[in-house]
Amino acid sequence: MTRRIIAMFAALLLIAAGLGLYAFHLRNRVALEEQRLAQQAQVVPPASGPTTLVTLYVASDSEGSLRRTQENVALPQERSERARAILRALLSKYSQRSSGHPVGAGADVRDVFLLGSDTAVVDTNAGFADSHPSGVLVEELTIASIVNTLNANDPQITRVKILVDGKERDTLAGHADLRRFYRSSGIGQVMKETP
Amino acid sequence: MWLRYPPVLAQSPERSQLSVYSPHAFYSVPLINANGQSYIGLVELLEPLGSVNAESDGKKYKLRFVAPGARELELQFHNGKDKGKVKGDNLKLPANFVIQDGRGYVPLASISEVLARALSTQIRFNPAARRLFIGDIGQRFTLELRPGAPSKLFISFDSPVNPTIATEPGHIRFTFRREPVLPAIDHTAYTDSQITGANFSEHDGVAELDVTGNVALMANYADGGKTIVVTAAPAPPPPPVAQQAPPPSPPTPQEKAPSQPQAPAGPRFLVLIDPAHGGSEIGAAISPTLPEKDVVLALAHRVQHELANRGISAGLLRNSDTSISLDQRAISANAARPALYVALHATSSGRGVHVFTSLVDQESYTSRDFLPWNQAQAAFLESSSAVAGSVAAELETRKLPNSIVAAPLRPMNNIAAPAIAVEIAPPGDDIADISGSAYQDQVAQSIAAGIAAVRGKIPEVRP
After folding, report:
1. Nearest CA in chain B to A180
2. Residues B406, A177: C-beta atoms closer than 8 Å
3. Chain A partners of B423 at a C-beta cutoff of 8 Å?
4. Which residues of chain B have pLDDT under 70?
5. Interface touch A137/B283, C-beta < 8 Å
6. Residue A109 has pLDDT above 60, yes or no
7. Which residue in chain A has the smallest CA separation from B281?
8. What is the ipTM of this complex?
9. What are the distances in angstroms from CA A187 to CA A65, A129, B237?
10. What are the residue boundaries of the structural domains of chain B, listed by start?
11. Whole-model pTM?
12. Class of domain B138-232
């Protein structure tokens, strides 16, 4: 009798431990799913506050060129925050379904650091590089659009370096060199501009 | 007073240096001359291996050293005396200990014994070559000659290598400075009409493998950089004849190529085709089953075939599914001394064909005598642009959508020869068409015809 009670008690304990482990597993899965959904959320520039007309150089894969457009974007006061908001507006263009230059879900700019008066270091998230289409032209177009957009809205920015998750990477998606600084004066040679 | 000395690793090139290889680091240590022989600083020797604290009052010298995860040990010496102590045990040096500017120096001839006692590990020291191996370290290699047309010498290592490669008529030399390459042979002779031998030597802190031949030699990397394949550089084919060569049959048309004549001693026009990516590095996923590395290798064979039809010799930098780093590609390409370098890429984005020339920062480029690695292409941009324009014109003739773009693309920036890159995108809505014969043939013909049209404007190169 006593042995049977002990066996039942042990079985109940095992079941309880199993359920606990399963609950722990479910909690982790939910957390990961939430994280994934947060990363995939469309990048939307801040919608509140007064807006400013900014210039965006939007890439087109089929034309292999950049198109200059203007858009109203709510901008913060601080210079590097403004640069980040403008780049997020650019990426939001690329995340639209009709984009002629899709850069992958969840692409975002984590931060923009300004070094001296002329250099911007753009820290993108992993989603930006990991899901970026691979190819020489498509990668160079992305970089050119970032550099030209920054320079158009803050002409003092003439050199741009791109990081991924705070770290230097060899290439964006296998081709475009991310180890170098890109000069806005050189981008003119890289990309033609369509009216 | 205990002095903490800063590491002294970067030295002026005119001074003799000892190359030191350990499982944790490669570094060079300067040597000084004293008492008519070479001496080495103990701090400079031990600093990269652990924590060093040295004390000197001008007469006595005491050094404490702690390797990671090991116990502290002590070395004691006296200026002008040949007796010292290592870990409490007496040690007799072959010449007197020297203190200069507070730094302690032991005779170079004694470092094997000093280190073996201090570190309790295996030491291999070649004083004539100034190479020191600490611990169980060393990279051996094997040589395998496969006679044929062309003959191939496979030099296989345990892990990837990245030697400096230099060529001159009848020789291709691999210089290993950072790699702990150990002697496997002194001299090997081959009874082969193309590759005649290999000589290994150690000198001036480096290991050198000199492969000799009766023809101009070139090298390719294989097996992820663990194997170097030496072959005869392609010779100019005979003048084109009316009969067309048979179409290529990828993936191994080059392997089945007919016997090649010996390379001439005079200038030659060699196009080196570099199919991008390879091995584990697949490049763009054109589709789930079609990686960029396969598309460009097939295209490379077609371009090679079309060039041969126009009387232009072409070699492939990668002729199999092999991973090669960007720097290795540039080193191999520069060693082959091509008249033109053509990199091939493919993408699923966009349409048509994009022709790239290099975008190098020319602001600091001043001389043709010395080419900084990242600006090696600067001196050749004019010729490169001429080729790109000619290829684009041929694409236009065939009604293929095209564009010319300048981009800072590696390894093109590191190529010391006229260079272009060609990226093909699908011709229309169906991505699978990118690997279709009709489309690839048109692109290959455009590239070959474009090169042939400007051949006279590109200088030939003496191998």
Report:
1. B408
2. no
3. 135-137
4. 1-15, 234-267, 361-371, 461-463
5. no
6. yes
7. A174
8. 0.73
9. 11, 20, 41
10. 17-134, 138-232, 236-463
11. 0.59
12. mainly beta
All residues of chain A having their beta carbon less than 8 Å from the beta carbon of residue B359 are 186, 189-190
Measured between alpha carbons, how far is A167 from A175 in angstroms, rounded to an integer? 17
CA-CA distance, A50 to B407, in Å (whole number)? 38
Closest residue on chain A to B354 (Cα): A137
Region of B129 (left: φ > 0; alpha: ψ -120 to 50; beta: rest) is alpha
Residue B164, classified by CB atoms within 10 Å of its CB into exposed (0-12), middle (13-18) or buried (19+), is: middle
Please name the fold of domain B17-134: Copper Amine Oxidase; Chain A, domain 1 (3.30.457)
Give the architecture (CATH level 2) of B236-463. Answer: 3-Layer(aba) Sandwich (3.40)
A-B C-beta contacts closer than 8 Å: 76
pLDDT, position B319:
84
Task: Report chain A residues whose CB lies below 8 A from the CB of B425.
Answer: 135, 137
A182 interaction partners in chain B (CB closer than 8 Å): 408
Domain ranges in chain A are 51-194
CB-CB neighbors (< 8 A) of A134 in chain B: 283-285, 292, 347
Give the model's confidence band at A62: pLDDT under 50 very low, under 70 low, under 90 confident, else very high. Answer: confident
Are the C-beta atoms of B79 and B61 separated by less than 8 Å? yes
Give the per-residue pLDDT at B58. 84
Average pLDDT of the residues in A161-180 = 93
Q: Which two tokens stand for residue A138?
A: 């498509």
CA-closest candidate to residue B81, choices B90, B70, B71? B90
Phi, then psi, of B7 in degrees rounded to 5? -65, 140
Q: Contact B405/A191, CB-based, under 8 Å?
A: yes
